[in-house]
Specification:
2 domains; mainly alpha; 5% strand; single chain; two-stranded antiparallel sheet
Length: 185
């Protein structure tokens, strides 16, 4: 009876199926031979997410955040020019920028798992455990801790880059605390 189940996740195999409906793993040749079916070719890499996960590193993430910071900078400039009195106070301008970034990153990551920059470079944020969509809570945690990852401020995001380089799953502090990873979209 074990031959009628997926060897990877234990889901009952559908007669004639080459791949598991649940996890996408190729079904064993033994189970197909028992059913009288020919052996199949290996599953495409996207069909089995646990087989070879390609976590995204510093360079591609840097390009994405650079695009996002340009977008939030434009939005901040428009808002501070529109409300000229706030433009004269540096702390007000910094405060507006922080609020814009918090809302921008949290909302887009919570809704889509991607910011505009991530969409352009084709990467996304997912839960570490099962690669499912993240919640607004996880998006907010990642966003708030982005300010810690910017340390030292003379070389922005150096701490985040070091954490990514030293992590097996290429996680910065925000990813580690929120239990998220960045994958190819």
């Amino acid at each position: 009876m074990d031959e009628d189940k997926c060897a990877q996740c234990g889901t009952p195999a559908t007669p004639g199926a080459k791949f598991c409906q649940s996890c996408g793993a190729p079904l064993t040749a033994a189970s197909r031979a028992v059913q009288g079916l020919p052996a199949a070719e290996p599953a495409p890499s996207h069909a089995a997410p646990g087989a070879q996960v390609l976590y995204q590193g510093v360079a591609i993430r840097f390009v994405a955040i650079l695009i996002d910071l340009i977008i939030t900078g434009i939005i901040g400039t428009i808002l501070t020019v529109t409300f000229r009195s706030a433009a004269y106070y540096a702390t007000a301008t910094i405060g507006v920028s922080i609020i814009i970034e918090l809302v921008y990153f949290t909302v887009l990551l919570g809704l889509y798992g991607q910011t505009v920059g991530m969409m352009i470079v084709r990467i996304k944020v997912v839960k570490e455990a099962d690669y499912s969509a993240i919640s607004y809570r996880e998006a907010a945690i990642r966003t708030i801790l982005l300010y810690i990852d910017e340390i030292p401020y003379l070389i922005p995001y150096l701490l985040g880059a070091v954490l990514i380089w030293t992590s097996d799953k290429k996680q910065r502090l925000g990813d580690r605390v929120a239990h998220t990873v960045v994958l190819k979209a």
